[in-house]
Design brief:
The complex is a heterodimer of chains A (about 325) and B (about 260). The radius of gyration of chain A is 19 Å and the shape is globular. The longest helix of chain A is centred in the last third of the chain and has 27 residues, at about 215-240. Chain A has helices spanning about 5, 20-35, 40-65, 75-90, 95-115, 120-140, 145, 165-190, 190-200, 205-210, 215-240, 250-265, 270-285, 290-305, 310-320, and strands at about 155, 160, 165, 240-245. Chain A contains 15 helices and four strands. Chain A has a two-stranded antiparallel ribbon with strand order 1-4. Chain A has a two-stranded antiparallel ribbon with strand order 2-3. Chain A has a domain at about 35-250. Chain A is mainly alpha-helical and about 325 residues long. The model of chain B has no long low-confidence stretch (mean pLDDT about 90). In chain B, a hairpin with a 2-residue loop joins strand 4 (about 60-65) and strand 5. The relative contact order of chain B is 0.18. The termini of chain B are far apart. The radius of gyration of chain B is 19 Å and the shape is globular. Chain B is an alpha/beta fold. Chain B has two domains: about 5-85 and about 175-260, P-loop containing nucleotide triphosphate hydrolases (Rossmann fold); about 95-160, no CATH class. In chain B, helix 5 packs across helix 6. Chain B has a six-stranded mixed beta sheet, with helices on both faces. In chain B, strands 2-1-4-5 form a four-stranded antiparallel beta sheet, covered by helices on one side. The chains are: A mainly alpha (about 325), B alpha/beta (about 260). Chains A and B meet through helix 8, helix 9, helix 10 and helix 11 of A and helix 2, helix 3 and helix 4 of B.
Chain lengths: ~325, ~260
């Protein structure tokens, strides 16, 4: 079975969809061609979809695989955005290096956030991570000398190898990193880490009897998840070119969690579909003059009522592969 | 070929839960290649003792060692890494995964690659994953469930699940196996097959097996030795014939069973 086809079935393993590889190839081809045909705003939305896909992939590790809830992913996203922006803008570090360094820093913070997760579960863990998110956002707000505080940071396009990263360049960079992110997530999901996380979600006692150290893997899951969110944040900062602490509130964390659940917990396809749903559906609803928010909210309720395994789970069932 | 003989030694182990003495001063030993039955009425402390050996419960007093390694200070995952495998009374399997994948998780500690390699699925990761899949195929064949490899565990009958759980322990290259009521819920054919599998494991790999089981015909046929617990205390330790004729055992355990 091809690696591409695996994307569509991860992490479960019943029959192999022969059309999976073709579908993935087609999506990539369309994504590559998109800047040639769409206008600036649509390109912005596509870039945002890819960025949110990256966050959702990381969060899905944590929630879909390891069974841990996080309400501080907006803060990880924010730390990644600020670290990348500050290193690039103030310390003149090359953009890609800043992006990577910011993600490593955020991974370390993610590992610290994992400590309460070693003791707490479910709603209790959710509240603890929510607290962490608020603290991180507050630190960004108060550390004015570095972050500009509530006034935020205005950013100028960074250069990569002497080439100014405009909207199209950023789109392709984001596409490349998100594609890498998808393959990384796919590889981990069918490697020993992904399997260990699934066992831990099911039963920590069983994990112990299999020689799997649950604490260690929870820390790894938080660190990977924070890494993904931070890379996304570093891309986001230069997509919007202006960041302030307000952008990284708990509300955004809840949106991230919704993307994962709406798309489909524990599936890689679900991360992509969930992110696209969150970015694109509100745009399509603009026709409902005063009530796009209302309609979107109702849609969320309907999806959860009729597709408890998310949009991706429904798509798989319709394709006869549930 | 001579195999190294290991000893799993339980030394004066006591466990208190609050004011309740679940185990009091229990001592016995198990060597490679022997099959020992751990029997006793409900509440005698059998599961507590298995939990102690597998590192889930800490003894209040006493210790458990594997040759020179003190197991009773280690975490459950470390005990498993030292080759003492546990098969639970109710199989702890991931029902959404296939049989094959459920067995693959047991290869965890045999896989030796880093996270970066895993993210990129480097050649050494592929090679190790292939080797693990081959080991899984061997175990599936030994258990006679190759046909079910791709089925979701959630769709399988209970007897199959217990075999898969046993398969997991085998994949961990254990030298000792702890079985908690392995035949509960199995039909006669499955019981007979399980007995053969266990005897085969002892013969081929020299496994030491400690089995908690209520079914007396099964344990007396399978085991070289029986250890009897009652109210947390060891009251007999000997061959099945000796133990089943022991007056105290008759009184405390078999008497109760006859009444039931």
């Amino acid at each position: 079975m091809s690696a591409a086809a695996d994307i569509l079935r991860a992490p479960r393993s019943p029959t192999s969809p022969g059309w999976g590889g073709a579908l993935v190839g087609l999506c990539l081809l369309l994504a590559c061609a998109a800047p040639l045909v769409v206008n600036g705003y649509a390109l912005y939305l596509l870039t945002l979809t890819e960025i949110f896909t990256l966050v959702a992939l990381g969060l899905n590790f944590l929630t879909g695989y390891a069974g841990q809830i996080s309400l501080c992913h907006a803060a990880f996203f924010g730390v990644g955005a600020y670290a990348t922006a500050i290193l690039t803008q103030k310390a003149a570090v090359p953009y890609l290096v800043s992006l990577f360094a910011g993600a490593l820093l955020t991974s370390a913070i993610g590992a610290v956030v994992a400590i309460p997760a070693l003791r707490l579960k479910n709603i209790y863990l959710a509240i603890a991570t929510l607290g962490f998110g608020v603290v991180l956002q507050k630190i960004i707000f108060e550390w004015r000398s570095l972050t500009g505080g509530g006034g935020g940071l205005a950013l100028t396009p960074p250069g990569i190898a002497g080439y100014d990263l405009g909207a199209t360049g950023l789109y392709y960079l984001t596409l490349a990193l998100t594609t890498l992110g998808v393959f990384g997530a796919l590889n981990v999901s069918r490697g020993r880490t992904g399997r260990a996380l699934l066992v831990i979600k099911d039963s920590e006692i069983a994990a112990g009897s299999l020689g799997i150290n649950a604490s260690r893997y929870k820390v790894i899951a938080f660190a990977i998840s924070a890494f993904y969110a931070a890379v996304a944040g570093g891309l986001f900062a230069y997509l919007v070119r202006y960041i302030n602490p307000e952008s990284f509130s708990v509300g955004l964390s809840i949106s991230f969690l919704s993307m994962v659940v709406i798309g489909g917990l524990g599936t890689i396809g679900g991360s992509i579909v969930g992110a696209a749903f969150y970015v694109i559906v509100p745009e399509l609803l603009r026709g409902f003059k005063d009530a796009p928010g209302l309609v979107f909210g109702l849609l969320l309720v309907l999806v959860m009522m009729f597709m408890p395994r998310g949009l991706w789970g429904m798509a798989r069932r319709l394709a006869g592969k549930a | 070929m001579a195999r190294p003989v290991n000893h799993l030694v339980i030394e004066d182990v006591s466990v208190d839960f609050g004011g309740i003495h679940a185990l009091t001063g229990v001592s016995f030993a198990l060597e490679s290649g022997s099959i020992v039955g751990l029997i006793g009425p409900n509440g005698a402390g059998k599961s507590t003792l298995l939990n102690c050996i597998s590192g889930i419960t800490r003894p209040t007093r006493g210790r458990i060692r594997l040759d020179d390694i003190i197991l009773s200070v280690l975490s459950a995952s470390s005990v498993a890494r030292h080759g003492v495998g546990r098969v639970f009374q109710h199989p702890e399997l991931v029902t959404e995964l296939s049989v094959h994948d459920n067995l693959l998780v047991a290869c965890h500690r045999g896989l030796d690659y880093g996270l970066i390699g895993e993210l990129l699925r480097l050649p050494n990761v592929r090679r190790q994953e292939r080797a693990a899949a081959a080991k899984v195929a061997d175990v599936l064949a030994r258990l006679g469930i190759t046909d079910s490899a791709d089925k979701r565990v959630g769709s399988l009958p209970y007897g199959h699940r217990k075999l898969i759980d046993l398969g997991r322990a085998l994949l961990m290259d254990v030298s000792f196996l702890l079985l908690d009521e392995p035949i509960a819920g199995l039909n006669d054919i499955e019981v007979a097959r399980l007995g053969e599998i266990l005897l085969g494991l002892r013969r081929e790999f020299g496994l030491g097996i400690l089995v908690v089981e209520h079914n007396m015909p099964f344990v007396s046929r399978l085991c070289d030795r029986l250890v009897v617990l009652d109210l947390g205390q060891l009251i007999a330790n000997g061959s099945p014939a000796e133990v089943l004729n022991d007056a105290r055992v008759m009184a405390s355990y078999l008497g109760e069973a006859a009444d039931a």
